[in-house]
């Protein structure tokens, strides 16, 4: 019975039978069979299945909240018996932007889990600003101005953004020497990344324009820049390797992206005392301070 409760919670939190199966390492067919068995035992439909997603019934929503409380209480009781109360352990769900998560979160997870082997991490990569409460995210990495309101924010690192281009592009189109020269060049940015907010000796300036290629992927914009298609405003955490090997060079060195943007770990306000989240934030704050690896 306990296992079926845990299965139901996994289905709700993963959002689909197949995702729950991957999390629990069982087949979708077995997930469906055990869910049907649970519903038959309870005599109620817990989940409405549609072609696109799962929707909790009213009964299912109440059952989920009750069962989640039961499981959390059980885990807390086990931790007290084992002397682990207040120690990191159990589920920890992280959300991060796609490129940053792949480049600067994933490589350091082994060291984190070596220190905290009882933590069970789920890392979701998404370039949108996910709803932490709706998606049940414990910690989200955000590259933005300092979050306010219902979120508590922990500053992990500066986010230095510079104008850059490939040497081949500059050889063919010339090197801009003023901000005004950008009007004569192709710009590259993902959707919603233009206009650019820049800062320089004469103060802030906004650069309007359209990307030479329309894309919803920041990684695609970076690769197009390396390929020599145009000029981009990129974070140093994203292009550090390309700058080191010469694939990209900085232009207009006295100009940078707006400095009110930084890299934060955010949590729902009131969740700061979670030992898992606190361990995660402390681990990455230590790694990225006082100077982040990509800026050393």
Distance between the termini: 53 Å
Class by alpha and beta content: alpha+beta
Largest sheet: 5 strands, mixed
The CATH architecture of the largest domain: 3-Layer(aba) Sandwich
Assign a percent range to the helix content. 25-40%
Write a short abstract of this structure.
This protein is of the alpha+beta class.
Write the layout of secondary structure elements.
Elements: H1 2-14, H2 17-24, H3 28-42, E1 47-49, E2 54-56, H4 58-81, E3 90-96, H5 98-105, H6 109-115, E4 119-125, E5 139-144, E6 151-158, E7 161-165, H7 167-173, E8 187-188, E9 196-200, E10 203-207, H8 218-226, E11 231-235, H9 236-245, E12 249-250, E13 256-257, E14 262-268, H10 275-288
Summary keywords:
296 residues, alpha+beta, Arc Repressor Mutant, subunit A, D-Maltodextrin-Binding Protein, domain 2, five-stranded mixed beta sheet, four-stranded mixed beta sheet, 10 helices, 14 strands
């Amino acid at each position: 019975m306990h296992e079926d409760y845990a299965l139901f919670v996994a289905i709700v939190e993963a959002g689909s039978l197949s995702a729950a199966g991957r999390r629990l390492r069982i087949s979708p067919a077995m997930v469906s069979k055990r869910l049907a068995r649970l519903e038959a035992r309870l005599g109620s439909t817990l989940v409405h299945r549609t072609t696109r997603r799962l929707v909790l019934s009213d009964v299912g929503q109440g059952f989920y909240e009750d069962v989640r409380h039961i499981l959390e209480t059980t885990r807390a009781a086990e931790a007290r018996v084992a002397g682990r109360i207040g120690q990191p352990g159990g589920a920890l769900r992280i959300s991060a932007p796609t490129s940053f998560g792949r480049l600067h979160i994933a490589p350091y997870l082994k060291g984190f889990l070596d220190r905290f082997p009882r933590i069970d991490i789920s890392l979701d990569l998404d370039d949108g600003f996910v709803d932490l409460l709706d998606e049940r995210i414990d910690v989200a990495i955000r590259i933005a101005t300092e979050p306010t309101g219902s979120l508590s924010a922990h500053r992990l690192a500066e986010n230095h953004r510079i104008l850059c281009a490939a040497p081949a592009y500059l050889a063919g189109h010339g090197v801009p020497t003023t901000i005004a020269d950008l009007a004569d060049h192709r710009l590259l940015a993902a959707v919603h990344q233009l206009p650019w907010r820049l800062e320089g000796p004469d103060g802030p300036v906004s650069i309007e324009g359209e990307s030479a290629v329309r894309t919803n992927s920041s990684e695609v914009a970076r690769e197009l820049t390396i390929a020599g298609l145009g000029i981009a405003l990129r974070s140093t955490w994203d292009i550090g390797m390309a700058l080191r090997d010469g694939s990209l060079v900085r232009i207009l060195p006295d100009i940078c992206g707006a400095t009110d943007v930084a890299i934060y770990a955010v949590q729902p306000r009131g969740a700061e005392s979670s030992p898992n989240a606190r361990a995660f934030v402390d681990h990455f704050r230590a790694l990225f301070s006082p100077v982040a690896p990509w800026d050393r």
